[in-house]
Amino acid sequence: MHWGVISLIFAMQVGKKEAAGDTAGALNAAKQAKMFAWIFIILGVVALILNIVFGGLAFLMAALGSR
Fold this sequence. Notes:
This protein is mainly alpha-helical. Helix content is 88%, strand content 0%.
């Protein structure tokens, strides 16, 4: 599942709530969309860093094991 979809769902609610006159609801949905977007950006960067580190370790182990 693409976790960014959660942020997109909240972002899509902003326009609907604002059009319905629910300004407080629109502000809340915008705040939640931003929060989830940042959470998933940070998690993505952490996953990328871990992938690079463990990929590098696997490369080194394979290179040392082939001697």
